[in-house]
């Protein structure tokens, strides 16, 4: 009943000469930012277009403008065409009738985009009531149909958003967007917060719906591989402008703009992993004595549940939930090991156990031959010099009130290294130089907010290596960075591995990155290591079913090597 | 999800974290400026009040309930004492009581909140249980009981107010510290090998500093309120001159039925103006710290259309 | 059903808090040096016979823990002792006082809540407008005036127009039921207005900031995108979510209700629990003071429990 819309060759949705300005009042000065510049896009019914760009490129602002949802300090000019008629000319008044009825949107982060105190069904029903699409029994039936369409059992309509998993919530969000049978669907980073396998499912769903319902779909994302696998065409945005637009195949094989090429190059491709890692391991490994830098043997970690009042009444000890079960790992000096798994697989807990932040229930952890299992935090403190950690989000991992100099100096003060300021300054400058923040003088007195994401991550790394640790633990060190700066940070880690002979244990959800940079890969699933081996071997001939499933769900940046969906129709 | 609006909006929000940036930001708001001005004037008047009191606050200088005149701006009370001088002196003592009681309360509250939020676990459980009990028991009644048992005295009033008023501060600081404790940079510093003391002093306290200042300013309003309430119920030192006792005396000596509003109004208005000042200042700092108040999806005005320039049929 | 665990937890907490209050009461009056019962001599005009009776009643010759048990036992039997002042059982005095207080405080609180929610919502949704500035500043003004000051001002302004003291006119006996009712209503006007004015301001400020916080949430944007009109957006989405912090904060401001009603009862000579407490302090009527403290505490704890249960009803996310 939904799929028999006419297929027309004329455009379903077009953006013409869209310009957006944001006004900002900073103190007494009124500034204006031209954030979207002359954007033109056009989609036929059933066509899927990827709108690609890094954070701040104006891609989300563009589609919010098409929905008429910009904040009050925005000024817009241009035309938004829906089946040939301009819906922007009358401002809010002319967009409002079409919103959600003809043009709907899937918001990023379905957790916060759903009202937490209303059921999913209630919220879908509201969309229909507002536009008089359905009522009464017919509406209830339609809610069930919509949920089933996106792969959620119809009886889940009575559930609240927090009672659904992340993937389910995103599906429910899609169901809500389809409630009034729109012709155009705008999806804003619909899979960003999801694990790669769930992401794969949600993308397949969107592609299927677009085909079945003849929906024009605009997919806003920073991930080129997703676009390559799910869209016909793509538009690349940079600083508010569309710098290149065209068929996904053309963009991949014959990028015209420098920036497009850079983006593709920065997108790691698990399928082109060379037999040995990119920069072949130095032969020195063989001469290394057999004593490992980090030796984790059969550790298990469990989080006890909080004892509830009822447990107390019954005299029951709450059962502990096991987070990590029987995990063994080994990192040698000058070696990078990647621990790959989805969220909740136990990889972060493993790292915490190695750092002594959580207690291991069983097993042992040896650091440089010394048993560090179960040391108190006081006993750990002097040892922390040897093990340093790099965190995922460089926007979060630096104290925003500290200048670069103080951030890098803090570990020295904490460990009482460098008696004079001059001595410390030397160490600080050396560390900053090592991470490539040169000339050092330009960075020493900056605050974190005056640095880009990549630079911040480099500062974080500098403050870790200023102590000259032997082991670096890196928790998703690039996943929060823009695609184009990821490679630089990873290269830096690689240099630390080869030049300073640090052992690196990197946590990542991204098998492609792991395959490119690590010597060995350990794949974690549900608290256990399911496969371990040389990086190339794990990627090329995976033994565990889970690794195979993980590999199958990774989108490929080359549109011809379709992994996600069949685009032949 | 936060919609990343490009331009100045996003990075600006991040810079407003340290103490001085927040203060600088806050002081651009008219209400904060007005609040600060009021508080400053009151503190100055309190400091120099013995120098500028026109008449004695102990001896009669005019007739009973004499209405305001050029000699006695605010008139006189039931004992023929100049109300203007009384209010000046009363403000000095009321403010001292309010400030000391507040410092006691904030000291206890911040300590409990930081320990509870930072260490978590059983420390948190025990401290928060205690806080919850204090929170639920009606404080003014407990104050009345304690003041009644111990006898009326200004220092009792200070201790009682300070020792019972810390609970909301403890709750607020705990919530803040708890979320700071989970922040990655705190984890990072901990992984560097820093001690808890170092982390609390160098990373936690500076972050909650502005909030603590706002809370202190707001707590002063509650302390002064409680002082006037206790005084009004006759539980303060009857010989001390505070805004509370001035109003209590006036009520006691039938100023209401005599229509002698001037014996009540100056002290009451003084309390109100000082509290308004504190409230506006404290609230502005607190609001400035709350990033959730910076966005509203329900603004009165929508986005605007700008006529097309350049290409297209509507070009001008 | 993990939700029932939450309800149980709150009930247990309330019961334990009552015990804490009981114990605090015991310690304040018995254990601490200067505690009135331990210094029977401080009872005004105590005859030797009374002293003996009191010693026996409180078991002062027994060890402390036995005294405590005795005290608990007596309390649970509803025996709070006898008021020094009118020689009536404290319990009877309390019941009478509460029955006088409840209508006045209920009317004032409900009025203040309604006014606070309406004013708070209006200024939040019209944020930055003249209306917002005006209503917020007026609220701050009323927040800043001490209750007793507002009460006295109303007394001076309405002297002669409205009755200024007590609950009814002692000379108007014999009128019809309707007249008595009207008379009582007139007596209520000033105290209720004072209470409502002092309380509405805090409520309005609480509601305003809670609303402002929810208006920045992403689901508001989603609802707006769905075509939800402004009024419904405010009611069904923003206010519905803002109710959660509002319930919490209104429960926390119960203390202000108690303070306000005590001061108001003193000013308007309202023969309620607050005035009873005040007289008990003046006359050093310790059994009344003790009983009053306990009774008010239990009432406040009960209302806190009710607030917890409302919160549970409002927030589907509560599991523990």
How does this structure look, described?
The complex is a heterotrimer of chains A (569), B (316) and C (320). By secondary structure, chain A is an alpha/beta fold. Chain A is built from 22 helices and 20 strands. Chain A has four domains: 1-102 and 184-267, P-loop containing nucleotide triphosphate hydrolases (Rossmann fold, 3-Layer(aba) Sandwich), CATH 3.40.50; 110-181, no CATH class; 333-386 and 472-554, P-loop containing nucleotide triphosphate hydrolases (Rossmann fold), CATH 3.40.50; 394-468, no CATH class. In chain A, strand 19 and strand 20 form a beta hairpin. In chain A, helix 4 (120-130) crosses helix 5 (136-149) and helix 10 crosses helix 19 (483-499). The longest helix of chain A has 17 residues, at 196-212. By secondary structure, chain B is mainly alpha-helical. The longest helix of chain B has 37 residues, at 83-119. Chain C has twelve helices and no strands. In chain C, 74% of the residues lie in helices and 0% in strands. Chain C is mainly alpha-helical. Chain C has a domain at 98-282: MetI-like fold. Chain C has helices at 3-31, 48-58, 64-76, 90-125, 130-144, 147-157, 177-215, 218-225, 230-252, 254-267, 273-282, 286-314. In chain C, 43% of the residues are buried. The longest helix of chain C is centred in the middle third of the chain and has 39 residues, at 177-215. Chains in contact: A-B, A-C, B-C. Chains B and C meet through helix 5, helix 6, helix 10, helix 11 and helix 12 of B and helix 1, helix 5, helix 6, helix 7 and helix 8 of C.
Question: Which SSEs are present, and which pair or pack?
Answer:
The complex is a heterotrimer of chains A (569), B (316) and C (320).
Chain A: E1 13-26, E2 29-43, E3 48-52, H1 59-67, E4 74-82, E5 85-86, H2 92-95, E6 103-106, H3 110-113, H4 120-130, H5 136-149, H6 166-177, E7 184-188, H7 196-212, E8 216-221, H8 224-230, E9 233-238, E10 241-247, H9 248-253, H10 258-266, H11 284-287, E11 294-303, H12 309-314, E12 321-331, E13 336-340, H13 347-354, E14 362-367, E15 370-371, H14 377-383, E16 387-390, H15 404-414, H16 421-434, H17 440-444, H18 453-465, E17 471-475, H19 483-499, E18 503-508, H20 511-517, E19 520-525, E20 528-534, H21 535-540, H22 545-553
Parallel strand pairs in A: 3-8, 3-9, 6-7, 7-8, 13-18, 13-19, 16-17, 17-18
Antiparallel strand pairs in A: 1-2, 1-4, 4-5, 9-10, 11-12, 11-14, 14-15, 19-20
Chain B: H1 9-15, H2 19-26, H3 30-52, H4 83-119, H5 121-136, H6 139-150, H7 154-164, H8 167-181, H9 184-192, H10 196-232, H11 243-252, H12 265-289, E1 304-305
Helix pairs in contact in B: 2-12, 3-4, 3-12, 4-5, 4-7, 4-8, 4-10, 4-11, 4-12, 5-8, 6-7, 7-10, 8-10, 10-11, 10-12, 11-12
Chain C: H1 3-31, H2 48-58, H3 64-76, H4 90-125, H5 130-144, H6 147-157, H7 177-215, H8 218-225, H9 230-252, H10 254-267, H11 273-282, H12 286-314
């Amino acid at each position: 009943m939904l799929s028999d819309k006419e297929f027309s060759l004329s455009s379903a949705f077009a953006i013409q000469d869209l310009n957006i300005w944001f006004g900002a009042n900073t103190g007494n000065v009124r500034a204006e930012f031209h954030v979207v510049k002359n954007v033109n896009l056009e989609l036929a019914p059933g066509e899927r277009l990827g709108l690609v760009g890094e954070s701040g490129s104006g891609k989300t602002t563009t589609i919010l403008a098409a929905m008429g949802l910009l904040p009050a300090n925005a000024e817009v000019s241009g035309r938004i065409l829906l089946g040939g008629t301009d819906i922007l000319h009358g401002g809010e008044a002319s967009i409002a009738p079409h919103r959600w009825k003809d043009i709907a949107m899937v918001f990023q982060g379905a957790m916060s985009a759903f009202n937490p105190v209303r059921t999913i069904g209630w919220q879908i029903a509201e969309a229909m009531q507002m536009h008089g699409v359905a009522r009464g029994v017919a509406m209830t039936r339609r809610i069930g149909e919509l949920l089933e369409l996106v792969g959620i059992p119809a009886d889940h309509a009575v559930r609240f958003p927090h009672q659904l998993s992340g993937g389910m919530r995103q599906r429910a969000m899609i169901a809500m967007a389809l409630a009034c049978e729109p012709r155009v669907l705008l999806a804003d980073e619909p899979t960003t917060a999801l694990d790669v396998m769930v992401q794969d499912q949600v993308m397949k769903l969107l592609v299927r719906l677009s085909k079945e319902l003849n929906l024009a779909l605009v997919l806003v994302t920073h991930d080129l591989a997703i676009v390559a696998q799910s869209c016909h065409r793509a538009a690349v945005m940079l600083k508010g402008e569309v710098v290149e637009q065209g068929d996904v195949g053309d963009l991949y094989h014959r990028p015209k703009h420098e920036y497009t090429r850079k983006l593709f190059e920065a997108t790691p491709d698990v399928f082109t992993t060379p037999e040995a890692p990119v920069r072949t391991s130095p032969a020195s490994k063989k001469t290394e004595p057999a004593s490992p830098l980090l030796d984790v043997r059969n550790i298990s970690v469990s989080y006890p549940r909080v004892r509830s009042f009822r447990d107390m009444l019954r005299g029951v000890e709450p059962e502990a939930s096991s987070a990590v079960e029987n995990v063994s790992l080994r990192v040698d000096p000058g070696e990078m090991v990647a621990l790959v798994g989805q969220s909740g697989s136990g990889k972060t807990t493993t790292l915490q156990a190695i750092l002594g932040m959580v207690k291991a229930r069983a097993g042992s952890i040896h650091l440089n031959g010394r048993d560090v299992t179960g040391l108190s935090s006081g006993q750990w403190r002097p040892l922390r010099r040897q093990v340093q950690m790099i965190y995922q989000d460089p926007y979060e991992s630096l104290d925003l009130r500290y200048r670069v100099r103080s951030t890098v100096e803090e570990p020295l003060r904490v460990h009482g290294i460098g008696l004079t300021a001059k001595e410390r300054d030397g160490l600080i400058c050396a560390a900053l130089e090592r991470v490539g923040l040169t000339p050092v003088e330009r960075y020493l007195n900056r605050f974190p907010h005056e640095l880009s994401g990549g630079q911040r991550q480099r500062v974080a790394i500098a403050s870790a290596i200023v102590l000259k640790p032997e082991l670096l633990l890196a928790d998703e060190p690039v996943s929060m960075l823009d695609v184009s700066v990821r490679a630089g940070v990873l290269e830096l880690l690689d240099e630390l591995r080869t030049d300073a002979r640090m052992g690196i244990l990197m946590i990542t959800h991204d098998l492609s990155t792991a395959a490119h940079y690590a010597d060995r890969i350990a794949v974690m699933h549900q608290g256990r290591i399911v496969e371990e081996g040389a990086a190339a071997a794990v990627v090329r001939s995976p033994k565990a079913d889970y690794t195979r499933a993980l590999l199958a769900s990774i989108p490929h940046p080359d549109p011809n090597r379709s992994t996600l969906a069949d685009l032949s129709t | 999800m936060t919609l990343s609006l490009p331009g100045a909006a996003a990075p600006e929000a991040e810079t407003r974290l340290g103490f001085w940036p927040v203060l600088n930001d806050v002081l651009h708001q008219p209400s904060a400026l007005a609040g600060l001005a009021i508080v400053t004037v009151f503190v100055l008047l309190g400091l120099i009040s013995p120098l500028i009191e026109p008449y004695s606050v102990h001896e009669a200088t005019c007739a009973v309930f004499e209405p305001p005149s050029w000699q006695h701006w605010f008139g006189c009370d039931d004992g023929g004492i100049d109300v203007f001088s009384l209010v000046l002196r009363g403000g000095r003592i009321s403010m001292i009581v309010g400030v000391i009681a507040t410092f006691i309360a904030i000291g206890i509250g911040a300590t409990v909140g930081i320990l509870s939020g930072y260490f978590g676990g059983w420390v948190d459980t025990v401290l928060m249980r205690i806080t919850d009990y204090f929170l639920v028991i009606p404080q003014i009644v407990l104050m009345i009981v304690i003041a009644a048992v111990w006898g009326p005295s200004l220092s009792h009033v200070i201790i009682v107010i300070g020792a019972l008023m810390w609970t909301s501060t403890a709750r607020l600081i705990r919530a803040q510290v708890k979320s700071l404790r989970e922040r990655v940079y705190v984890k990072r510093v901990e992984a560097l090998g820093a001690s808890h003391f170092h982390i609390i002093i160098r990373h936690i306290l500076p972050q909650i500093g502005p909030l603590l200042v706002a809370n202190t300013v707001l707590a002063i309003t509650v302390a002064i309120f409680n002082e006037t309430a206790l005084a009004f119920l006759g539980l303060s030192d009857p010989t001390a001159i505070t805004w509370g006792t001035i109003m209590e005396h006036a009520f006691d000596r039938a100023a209401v039925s005599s229509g002698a509003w001037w014996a009540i109004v100056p002290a009451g208005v003084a309390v109100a103006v000082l509290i308004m000042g504190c409230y506006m200042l404290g609230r502005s700092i607190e609001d400035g710290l709350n990033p959730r108040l910076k966005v509203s999806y329900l603004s009165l005005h929508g986005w605007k259309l700008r006529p097309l320039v350049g290409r297209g049929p509507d070009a001008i | 059903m993990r939700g029932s665990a939450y309800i149980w937890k709150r009930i247990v907490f309330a019961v334990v808090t009552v015990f804490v209050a009981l114990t605090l009461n015991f310690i304040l009056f018995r254990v601490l040096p200067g505690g009135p019962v331990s210094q029977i001599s401080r009872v005004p005009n105590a005859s030797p016979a009374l002293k003996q009776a009191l010693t026996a009643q409180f078991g002062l010759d027994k060890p402390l823990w036995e005294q405590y048990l005795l005290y608990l036992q007596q309390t649970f039997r509803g025996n709070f002792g006898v008021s020094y002042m009118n020689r009536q059982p404290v319990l009877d005095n309390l019941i009478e006082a509460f029955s006088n207080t409840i209508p006045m405080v209920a009317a004032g609180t409900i009025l203040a809540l309604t006014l606070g929610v309406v004013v708070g919502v209006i200024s939040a949704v019209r944020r930055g407008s003249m209306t917002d500035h005006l209503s917020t500043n007026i609220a701050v003004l009323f927040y800043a005036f001490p209750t007793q000051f507002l009460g006295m001002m109303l007394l001076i302004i309405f002297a002669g127009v409205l009755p200024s003291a007590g609950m009814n006119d002692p000379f108007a006996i014999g009128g019809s039921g309707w007249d008595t009712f009207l008379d009582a209503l007139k007596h209520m006007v000033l105290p209720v207005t004072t209470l409502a004015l002092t309380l509405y301001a805090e409520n309005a400020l609480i509601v305003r900031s809670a609303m402002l916080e929810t208006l920045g949430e992403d689901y508001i944007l989603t609802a707006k995108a769905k075509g939800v009109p402004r009024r419904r957006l405010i009611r069904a989405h923003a206010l519905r979510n803002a109710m959660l912090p509002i319930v919490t904060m209104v429960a926390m401001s119960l203390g202000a209700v108690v303070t306000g009603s005590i001061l108001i009862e003193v000013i308007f000579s309202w023969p309620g629990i607050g005035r009873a407490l005040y007289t008990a302090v003046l006359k050093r009527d310790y059994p009344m003071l003790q009983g009053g403290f306990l009774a008010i505490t239990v009432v406040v704890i009960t209302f806190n429990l009710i607030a917890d249960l409302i919160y549970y009803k409002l927030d589907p996310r509560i599991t523990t």
